[in-house]
Design a protein that fits this description.
35 strands; Transferase(Phosphotransferase), domain 1; 4-stranded antiparallel sheet; alpha+beta; Phosphorylase Kinase, domain 1; 3 domains; Neuraminidase
């Protein structure tokens, strides 16, 4: 439960305001009523016994750190069934993100000054015994104090390295654009990971652009846009230094923060080692005036044989320590222990199938269009109405998974257990059925018909509701154009959906509507024109807001509005080269899963996680193209559709352990998964 303004934490810290939200909790500004000073309180909502034990160990180590460029950790405690807390100095002043938003990119001189100061802080952290990695260096975590000092804040993701066994405080996390590829998933990180993040932060501060994501660069061949292309005012020397720090291979980066600082400053003199005492008397970073003129000796000629040996050893080391960056690992996804394949004769009508790129467009035939009725009606019970009892999957995850399959020739809705067993059809939809969505109590299923295959927008479709208890099917009122993308309100009284009825008959375009299920009253929520279509609404768990995708300037963006369509607000800015679509809420109402892809028709989809209030979304460590997520009731698993380039299947992703498993393995396409509450 998030803390509110005025709450008294641990009988000592009075909450003043929320400074930010993260995947594991929030950061608060609070007043220490014992010492009469303001402090920053970092919250971690993971409270298992193992987490609590590790938290106490690592918090003790963090509390011993003293450096002029780091906040002091003054207290730490665990509150059973509530959370774990780190108390740190509250640092006054704006962070780099706020400065960038207000004034634009910083100067090269200021970038060198900031970079050198953070390198001093990192050198101090990395040379502790045990060593400490920060792991979350980004614009928002570098503060400029009014007296001119620079401070690296937020130890929420810090990791302590003891010998060869890394341990971490909190869950795995990464920030796209700032995190190196080895930080995705469970690959080992070290001091060079912080070097990458600092380089990426300086790149963003000097150019005003978040750099291309490291994982996409490592796996998909995406190239880093040169700094000087973004900002020609940056010198070639400084640009080369920062780009070297951002090499996707750790072996090609600066091997320490001290080396990075030397190159950034343009000096070959080794920096003086920091004393191992409590705190230096002064900042080790000298003041910066004009840009240093002496070139950094970053790239040196070496004999060919020696270079070859280095390359070979690097590749071997990467294979054994960071297997996640090699794309051929994606083929090693285990199949479920047992999969029941139901074979039925295909329907006689010829029906086109969805393509592997998920971009099929098909128009319903006139005959199919007439199938959907416009008033609530009841139909005879379907052929197969028996729904087996839920089969538990680890972590308390229960409920059936509904999905659409093409294995009968036309799209039909099937259910299966969370482990992929007992795959069977719910009922026969003669005109095809797509987009199944469970009601909050799991007793009803909304879907659309007619449909011919996997599409992102449908023409001339209606929304129907199948009642599992009675076997009846009710058709909601519809208008020409097509209604699709149904999403239930948490209380089950409303369905929000996308409709192409706007602009009919000349130029139909999609907008978001809401229907009240008792009175069948329909209300339009989004008010934009044909140049800004909206689709894919998702009702928040607390019923207070609705997420949706809005197309502006030919790019799909993630927006939020009230349940009445008021206060439309863009909540995620991923840049002009990315489409953000298919939002899905986590149970806590703070984390959102979404699909991100490039603007090209064949660009692969990436499954992302976004925390409200953060700068950007984080890519899940999945090395296959996944999209359209749905979470398990306990929030520890998600299902999505994905493709290996041949056909579409349903995949299960373990959020806690970052493991992926295929659930359907039929030669025909399976898509549109939804987890029963």
């Amino acid at each position: 439960m998030p803390l509110a303004q005025g709450d008294l934490l641990n009988s000592r810290y009075r909450i003043i305001e929320v400074l930010g939200h993260g995947g594991m909790g929030s950061v608060y500004r609070a007043h220490d009523e014992s010492l009469d000073v303001d402090v920053a309180v970092k919250e971690n909502l993971f409270t298992t016994e193992d987490y609590a034990r590790q938290f106490r160990l690592e918090a003790t180590i963090l509390a011993s750190l003293r450096h002029v460029n780091l906040p002091r950790v003054s207290d730490h405690f665990v509150m059973p069934d509530q959370g774990q807390y780190l108390v740190m100095d509250y640092i006054e002043g704006p962070d780099l993100r706020q400065i960038l938003e207000k004034n634009g990119p910083i100067s090269e001189e200021e970038g060198i000054r900031i970079g050198a100061a953070i390198c001093d802080a990192l050198t101090f952290l990395h040379t502790r015994n045990p060593a400490v990695l920060h792991r979350d260096i980004k614009l928002g975590n570098i503060k400029l104090v009014p007296d001119g000092h620079i401070c690296l804040v937020d130890f929420g993701l810090a990791k302590i390295i003891e010998g060869d066994q890394p341990t971490m405080t909190g869950a795995r996390a990464m920030t796209p654009g700032y995190s190196p590829p080895e930080q995705y998933g469970s690959s080992r990180t070290d001091a060079r990971s912080d070097v990458y993040s600092l380089g990426a932060t300086l790149y963003a501060a000097l150019t005003g652009f978040i750099p291309e994501d490291s994982l996409a660069r490592a796996l998909e061949g995406l190239e880093l846009t040169p700094i000087r292309k973004r900002n020609p005012k940056i010198s070639e020397r400084v640009a080369a230094v920062i780009e070297k720090a951002m090499e996707t291979s750790a072996a090609n980066r600066f091997q320490s923060a001290r080396d990075f600082k030397q190159a950034l400053m343009g000096t070959d003199n080794p920096s003086q080692p920091l004393a191992t005492g409590s705190q230096p008397a002064q900042n080790a970073t000298p003041p910066i005036g004009n840009p240093p003129k002496k070139p950094a000796r970053t790239f040196r000629a070496r004999p060919l044989l020696f270079l070859s040996i280095i390359v070979i050893l690097t590749l071997v080391g990467l294979f054994y320590t960071m297997p996640g960056i090699f794309p051929f690992q994606a083929a090693e996804i285990p199949s479920p222990a047992a999969t029941v394949t139901v074979t039925k004769p295909p329907l006689p009508a010829a029906v086109s199938e969805a393509s592997a790129t998920l971009t099929v467009t098909a128009s319903a035939s006139p005959a199919a269009t007439s199938v959907a009725t416009r008033t609530p009606t009841a139909t005879p019970a379907p052929t197969n109405t028996s729904i087996p009892l839920p089969t538990p999957l680890g972590g308390g995850s229960t409920g059936k998974i509904a999905f659409v399959t093409m294995r009968e020739g036309s799209p039909q809705i099937y259910t299966m257990n969370p482990d992929g067993t007992q795959q069977e059809r719910m009922f026969l939809a003669s005109a095809g059925a797509c987009q199944p969505r469970w009601s909050p109590d799991g007793t009803k299923l909304a879907y659309i018909s007619p449909c011919l295959g996997r599409q992102l927008e449908y023409s001339n479709t209606s929304i129907l509701i199948y009642n599992l208890k009675t076997g009846e099917i009710e058709s909601l009122p519809s208008e020409p154009g097509g209604d699709f993308d149904p999403s239930w309100s948490p209380d089950g009284k409303y369905i929000v959906f996308t409709s192409r009825r706007t602009g009919m008959p000349v130029n139909p375009y999609s907008q978001i509507f809401k229907i009240e299920l008792d009175e069948l009253k329909v209300t339009r929520l989004t008010i934009t024109d044909a140049t800004q279509p909206a689709r894919q609404p998702a009702w928040s768990p607390d019923g207070s807001s609705i997420l949706y995708s809005l197309n502006r300037r030919s790019v799909w963006q993630l927006w939020s509005m009230s349940v009445d369509g008021e206060n439309p607000t863009q909540i995620l800015r991923s840049g002009g080269g990315n489409n953000d679509t298919q939002p899905a809420w986590a149970r806590d109402g703070m984390s959102i899963y979404l699909t991100q892809s490039g603007t090209g028709p064949n660009d692969p989809a990436r499954l992302m996680q976004y925390q409200l209030g953060e700068e950007s979304a984080a890519r899940l460590p999945v090395f296959i193209s996944l999209r359209d997520a749905s979470l398990s009731p306990d929030g520890q698993w998600l299902i999505s559709e994905g493709t290996d380039g041949k056909n579409i299947d349903i995949y299960l992703f373990d959020i806690i352990n970052n493991q992926t498993q295929i659930l359907t393995n039929d030669p025909k396409d399976d898509f549109d998964p939804d987890w029963q509450p």
